[in-house]
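# nightly structure sweep
# worker-07 picked up a monomer target from the shared queue
# config: single-sequence mode, recycle default, output format = structure tokens
# input follows
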Amino acid sequence: MVTVEIVAAERRTDPPGAELRYVVRAARDAPVWVVDDGWLVWSQRGRRIELGFQRAPLRPGVEPFGYFDPRVAELEPGGELARTVTLSWPQRLDGMWNAQDEAAPAPGEYEVVVRVGYGESEAPPPPTRVGEGVEAPVLGWQREAVSEPVALTV
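# output follows
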């Protein structure tokens, strides 16, 4: 089992933004490889914000120079991986994964969760069919873990 816990969610005023610290834990008897390429997949529904650090499907119409395997960090059995994410309002978002160019939540109270992707092997399997990209094998390899929500003031 892989879990994610947000250990701190702090508002910043100058410059406006937030800083979150989270920990990924592996309560397993085998290592896992956590997606660690730093791309943020933003999702907001009302007062709930999800910060995703997993591989997501490419947006329709996006034509990168090839979909590539994620960079990963090995997490040993019983181990922890701590990460900090710094957000600035407005937060720039990568167009490969996000429909909007930036996120700028209105001032107020939100609940935030962190989603991480991980695999049970160091890398996804290679494509098996001629002409198949690597997106499907990556998404098939990846598992996901989501934290419990915590309060965040914007």
